[in-house]
Amino acid sequence: MIRCSLADNQLYFKKGVLATLSAEKDILLCWEASSVEDIILQLRVTTPDILLVGHDVKGLEILSFLSQQKLLYPSLKIIVFTASADLVQAKELLTAGVNAILPRDTDQDDIVKAIQSVAKDDIYFNELVSRALLTRLRNKTLTAAADFPQFSKNEIRVLELLADGCKTQEIANRIFLSVKSVENIRYQLKVKTGASTSTALIVYALRHRLIR
Q1: Are 198 and 123 in contact (CB under 8 A)?
Q2: Would the pTM of this model clear 0.85, i.e. be above it?
Q3: What is the CATH number of domain 2-128?
Q4: Bridge-partner residues for 6, per DSSP?
């Protein structure tokens, strides 16, 4: 069972998402909120697996909020709904630790897919945001550093497949390794890069041109 909570101050939109969540047998709605104060109070009582939050919730400074909540609740995963797939905004959100970014007009099936993917594999990119992010990060200058970590062929391949949206089992099948081996590679990648999530790991790989 995936425990989700929803925070948004647009009633019509919220009703639609709530209806979507209620229709899924493997998703449990813990609570809903309409303001930053509501979110903070509710999180203190019940921390869900995934928080779905509107980018324009009243009183919400999104990046500051994300940083605070990730510090307080390290296991909390966050899906942000945004009115636009702004490229710079997407990069900032992902760097801050957001696990998925969805346009507000995302259909019900894709909302469910995003929730399931984030719950299982820590990350979900819809096509539009993925392309925007890749375009942005590919133009970044490579940061030179004397102590830049070295990566094995398998580690680079895992990074490439993660960026393609492959799940752990799919990666294992593609590179002919066990699921446990793939999980170990992902752990080592996080240790080497300092990334705490798969989202941050992909951002790191793109920023340093480890993958294309």
Answers
A1: yes
A2: no
A3: 3.40.50.2300
A4: 32, 52
